[in-house]
Structure prediction request, 351 residues.
Amino acid sequence: MYSEQDLRDAVAGGAITAESADAFRTHVAQMRRMPVTDEENFRLVNSFNDIFVTIAAVLLLVAMGGIGTAIVPGLAGLLVAAAAWFMAEFFTKRRRMALPSIVLMLAFVGGLVAAPIEILSESNVDDNARMMGALVAASFLAGAIGAWLHWKRFMVPITIAAISATTAAAVIATVVTAIMPAEGTSPEYILLPLVFAAGIAIFAFAMRWDMSDRERQTRRSDVAFWLHLLAAPMIAHPLFHWLGINDGSTIGAGGALLVLGAYLLFGLVALAIDRRALLVSALAYVIVALTGLFEQNGMVELSVALTALVIGSALLMLSAFWPAIRSVVVDKLPGELQQRLPVAGTLAPSA
Prediction:
């Protein structure tokens, strides 16, 4: 199986011409009845060998973590990070294997973040909240720096999302440490607004990558995909929590309508930017709201089935007619905004 990145590399290496690559993309679009720009491609598995290598790599990383834990606190994370970098030199740099590259990058960054936190857990700074917060922020900052070095070396698209996540976590930890909420204050009053703001910032960052590759033919589009996947839950969770969907109580018909309205807004944004991450991240909240709404109307036994029927049918219809619906949404937007969004693909007539 060949990915879009392989096709781009073949053009860059002179194996095929750019015209041949475009003709191939058009052929695939006609066969699938879906424009390439709307496919939201990203490479995860090229063959079963990717899965085989990933399993072996995870076993080795677990072994490194176990050995390090048995020796001294903090060594486990460092050994995991070192082993992940060493394996990436072959499986990422030379073999360019997708799934192992993702797992190894996450292990490398996770190891760097976990090492100082493991040391903290064995230290005596628990009584000093400000010191603890500052050290946790420094741990995430170390992860961000490590992720940046990994990006410069291996250029794995998900790495930019890892940099954004660790940077956001470092900033949030720093702000919470500086504010130091009074004892008894619910963490959600501090954390949720910060997470939501970070999600909006990462979403805007993702749009910068998207706008630099409107036809989605370079690695920048892959980077944007992972950034959107990171930003979506950071936006959706605080928003639906504020709508009352997470407190365990019945939200009522009005609350359910608000949730559905928010999901509809997410859908319009997803169509406009041609990214489905927002729809997926908010799906669980809509299912809970619809299930509660059906139960309030006496359909207790059928509430789950009816919710699955409504949501499943709507999403399948949206997926089937995504290009046509997206074209309508984009056409309603201002012309200047249309020129910044991903190209609204059009289907060539089938032969």
Observations:
- Residues 347-351 have pLDDT under 50 and may be disordered.
